[in-house]
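[audit] Reproducing an earlier prediction to check determinism. Same input, same settings, fresh worker. If the tokens differ from the archived copy the diff job will pick it up downstream; this log only records the rerun itself.
[audit] input (736 residues):
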Amino acid sequence: MKATSGAGGHHWRFNRVGGFDQVRIDSSADIRHLPDLDQKLWAALSCPTTGVEFDAHTLALLDADQDGRIRVPEVLAAVAWMCRVLKDPADLLKGEATLPLAAINQDDAEGAALLSSARRILENLGKAGASAITREDTADTNQIFAETRFNGDGVVPASAAEDATTRQAVEDIIACLGAVTDRSGAPGIDQPRLERFFEEARTYVEWWTEADAAGILPLGEATAAAAQAYEAARAKIDDYFTRARLAGYDKRAVVPLNPAEADYSAIAGKELSSASAEVAALPLALIEADGALPLRQGLNPAWSGVLEAFASKVSQPLVGDLEALTEAQWQEIKNRFSDYTAWQGRKRGAAVEPLGIARVRELLGDGSAEAILMLIGRDKELEAAANAIDSVDRLVHYYSHHDTLLHNFVSLRDFYTPGKKAIFQAGTLYLDGRSCDLCVQVTDMAAHSTLAAFSRTYLAYCDCRRRHGEEKMTIAAAFTGGDADNLMVGRNGVFYDRQGRDWDATIVKLIDHPISVRQAFLSPYKRVARMVGEQIGKFAGARDKAVDEGAAKGIADVSAHAEAGKAPPAPPFDIAKFAGIFAAVGLAIGAIGTALASIVTGFMGLVWWQMPLALVGLVLVISGPSMLMAYVKLRQRNLGPLLDANGWAVNTLAKINIPFGATLTGTAALPSGAERSLRDPFAEKKRPWGVYGLLLLLAVLLAGAWQQGYLAHWWGKLSPQQPPQTEPAKPSDARG
């Protein structure tokens, strides 16, 4: 730990974690002086608002410019605001879901407004006298204002009116112009909508006054309904009288102008109704030379209803109750509606027309406009207090979540703290007997993997699905423990997100990097074993193919000789060939024996304490380079590229060293105190090949030692020394 004084003389403290200095933020002074901290010492400079395990509403509040990213100035702006409206900014470090009202700074003007608004919210929710407010209390503004007449948004619902006249006026305005949603969730109107309605009403009345003055309403207020009936029948009646005039012009036109028998035959086999298009296309009635249009009998059934409305609403009021309408009478009706049609083309105030001219004139004269405007004014008087509700919601969310943000943005404390998860950790992947805690969500696997490869971390990209594939996402999981022998594309596991939901996970891509030094130690031997196995497989395959080809050739030769009636000749015995084979085998065995003897000779020539050192040296020669490379790469593992590929701007070298990496991936282990039975009824029967191999190696070593004379030398030293024997003296010759 080290401390330093920055701008303003604040005494900063840092912890060396993850290979870099991380600032400690654990006091109100640290929070107040956060703007003075050099941005080069921040762990991150920006992060996305999606793909992180953090409250989405809080992120939306922080993202002032709504660009989908949280940046240093936005964090500092939030910190500065909270330092002003809270008595003690250190309360932010508690991360509590409940904001005590006593924590709000009443000495600040905005803080006092926040406190007043918080109390109003609690009162509206039936919690008057409560000492704290929660995120749930500020989440639903509809519930907050459900029982209030005024809420400061300048929108007045019909229920805000105290008298029936004003209430009906609000409902009429909503019916004509639509509603604005009040904070309580009810439909209402605001001042612009009120002004627009009464402007439309005034122009509509002026338009009607123009018609009254010019006398262009042949039926008064009933003219509108009559005009609709007139327009519905006009084109078809014109068609009838035109045909009648043609028939009067030339009697021969009567037959072709009426439906022909073939026309009826064409529709006779169909299921007809008065709405059938074929029937509607026929004339209104039978065509006669200069004939009148019958209004009651002999009408086309498809148009009988239209003509009935025309007779009752148009012809009867204007030209009397008639059995048939002459062309002259029809022309008179058209003249009466010509001025009306032109007047309709100059219509103004159409938005209020559904209410009718009588109701519009009533609304203009009963003082409804002034009454509604007064209600809107009373509502706006509470605008400042009501608007502070949004600020209360902001404060409650900041109070609950800002500690987490600071320790995942200014520093990466949560990532490097055992038992905690950083906001970029999406959950835990269980696969191949391991649990991987460093999992991040990925939106574009191809783009992500290009940059994430520089993290020097073994990554498995998995497609995750749940609810029969309806929900999908992709994650990148870091494997920092165990080995990669059984990790391959297509393997399945289970991913648990931060909410505890389980997802089916399938590996779709791997980025290969060392996982552990242990894996690197064994990798040369595994490669040799794999290579030997491949060579044996190739040799066995080649021999199997040769046998098949030989058998096929032999069968073909037998078949050929059988067809010729001769037995196939027996192949001659080539003794030279067999002698050569045995000589080659003997030479190979001799070469192997010589090589082994040389190795044994060199090994046995060592002093006893040098022998284990030689064995260790041999192991280091084989595994040392692989272990060294793995160790170097494991020390280079870096969180930065993994997060940068997701849109973060990581500002430091956040290392994932070997000890810390071991905590990010858990391997399967039996619980402490668990009992384990080694009796497996289905275990394969073991053969003592190991014993055989050990005995063979021992025999080779002994043979080499005997060949070099070491056994005789050692045996001479180990055997007890015998005293030299003297020959007994011969008896002297007595003669002489």
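[audit] rerun output stored. Observation attached for the diff report: The chain has a mean pLDDT of 83.
[audit] end
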